[in-house]
Design brief:
Blueprint: H1 15-26, H2 28-32, H3 38-72, H4 76-104, H5 107-124, H6 130-147, H7 149-159, H8 164-171, H9 173-177, H10 180-192, H11 194-213, H12 259-263, H13 266-295, H14 300-327, H15 330-349, H16 354-383, H17 388-417, H18 421-439
Helix pairs in contact: 3-4, 3-6, 3-7, 3-8, 3-10, 3-11, 3-13, 4-6, 4-7, 4-17, 5-6, 5-11, 7-8, 7-17, 8-14, 8-16, 10-11, 10-14, 13-14, 13-15, 13-16, 13-17, 13-18, 14-15, 14-16, 15-16, 15-18, 17-18
Length: 451
């Protein structure tokens, strides 16, 4: 008896139909909530990783600064150098991270970074020398380079265009909200000591960060989607809707400049130098805020609360300035953030009464938070997505010059003068110097399509 012929193969799904099924192929959370554009899951995963991994040490350093000085008798400058080393190692590593995220996507980098940060925290919980402290810092820096803002910013810039400023503002809530970890870390230190507190944080970072890394995907075109959740365009090959092998043609390379082309523009250098100048003061505030407030006769509890309030209140700046970046000239928005930050630092330099602290909180957090989402949005607009990770990485390398020198300079000034006032006045002037740089940024004449 003649065998019955198999039923004909169903026709290949169109790009629109494939896009409709994409949530099921992207992950379980998206499968249960398919009406949410997957780019928002990328935003959530990226921001949450920064919250639990990178943000804890960046802001929590203030909580362990004093215990390290008290237990080992190290100078303020030598402990500040540890924080600066974290930034410098991250800056040197950033171009490689940018290159890798452009080539292989974000997931593997995020997972490796989470593992490394946890290992660094465990190492730091066991240190007994300054060199051991610096070694743990380097491990944390390498991990944070892979799971910090750069990788998330590239992924989000790929998933959004019209709503890029808002998406980057939302992901910036992650590091902003991690200011809460200062209070939690200080509480753990008071209960168990700084060594056990760091070991506990290592376990928390691994348990939460690794699952979150699995949510973050490279770009929407790889899944038949379009940025911002717009309808996916129908890709038509030379001989019909599919290539010879019956599959959709590979998505075109994203439009934009190469690294070499970006380096030839004044816009790249002006923006990089502007952020090097402003982060000179920002990182000095992060490292020395508690010590400076105690020196001004405020209690340690109030000083720790000020760190938390500074970061939490910056959330308004992140959201507000990120939203404005989608509506107005991003250069003007960024200059406004720099101005608020500079005036806030000047107020902090002379703070001796409670109302000075209130004025500081009304100015500095908005400016500090506002500049964070605007920079990657401006870079994506000016240079495109083709080599965005590498461009952001090189920018961070230059910016790290300010983040390295700032905390050490302020610590050295305190060791010499036994006062923070003049040091913070200088950092405020550095932030003011960034304003003309960003306002005079010329727009690149063209974005080079993938060639």
């Amino acid at each position: 008896m003649k065998a019955k012929a198999p039923p004909p193969e169903p026709p290949d799904a169109s790009p629109i139909e494939q896009a409709a099924s994409t949530p099921a192929r992207l992950g379980g959370l998206a499968l249960r909530m398919p009406h949410i554009f997957y780019g928002w899951w990328v935003v959530f995963g990226s921001g949450a990783i920064v919250f639990v991994a990178a943000g804890t040490f960046f802001y929590g350093f203030s909580a362990i600064f004093g215990p390290l000085v008290d237990e080992f008798g190290w100078s303020h400058a030598s402990v500040s150098l540890g924080f600066s080393m974290r930034t410098e190692v991250g800056g040197l590593f950033a171009p490689l991270v940018g290159y890798l995220v452009d080539r292989m996507g974000p997931r593997k980098l995020l997972a490796a970074g989470v593992v490394a940060v946890g290992l660094g925290f465990l190492w730091m919980s066991r240190i007994d020398s300054l060199w051991g402290f610096y070694g743990a810092i380097i491990v944390i820096a390498l991990g944070m380079g892979s799971c910090g803002g750069l990788v998330g910013h590239v992924a989000i810039s790929n998933w959004f265009e019209r709503k890029r400023g808002r998406a980057l503002a939302i992901v910036a809530i992650g590091p902003g909200a991690s200011g809460i970890m200062v209070m939690i870390l200080a509480w753990l230190i008071s209960l168990y000591g700084w060594r056990s507190a760091l070991a506990i944080m290592a376990v928390v970072i691994w348990a939460t960060g690794l699952p979150l890394a699995m949510l973050v995907r490279r770009r929407p075109e790889d899944y038949g989607l379009a940025p911002d959740g717009d309808p996916a365009p129908v890709v038509v090959a030379a001989e019909g809707p599919t290539a010879d092998n019956g599959h959709l043609p590979a998505p075109l390379a994203p439009e934009g400049m190469t690294m070499r082309e970006a380096l030839r523009t004044r816009a790249f250098w002006f923006l990089a130098l502007a952020f090097a100048a402003t982060w000179f003061g920002t990182t000095a505030i992060v490292v020395h805020q508690i010590e400076a407030l105690e020196h001004a006769d405020f209690s340690r509890g109030l000083a720790a609360l000020m760190v938390t309030l500074t970061v939490v209140l910056s959330l308004g700046g992140r959201l507000g300035f990120g939203w404005l970046a989608d509506m107005r000239d991003k250069r003007l928005v960024l200059a406004g953030a720099f101005l608020l930050q500079a005036i806030g630092i000047l107020v902090f330099a002379f703070a001796t009464a409670w109302w000075h602290l209130v004025l500081f909180l009304a100015l500095y957090p908005a400016g500090y938070g506002g500049m964070i989402p605007v920079r990657p949005a401006l870079q994506a607009e000016y240079f495109g997505r083709r080599a965005l990770g590498l461009i952001m990485g090189f920018t961070f390398t230059i910016t790290s010059l300010g983040t390295v020198v700032g905390p050490v300079f302020v610590g050295w000034m305190y060791d010499v003068l036994e006062s923070y006032r003049l040091a913070f006045m200088v950092t405020a002037l550095m932030s003011l110097a960034a304003i003309p740089l960003v306002l005079s940024m010329p727009r690149p004449q063209r974005l080079v399509a993938g060639q």
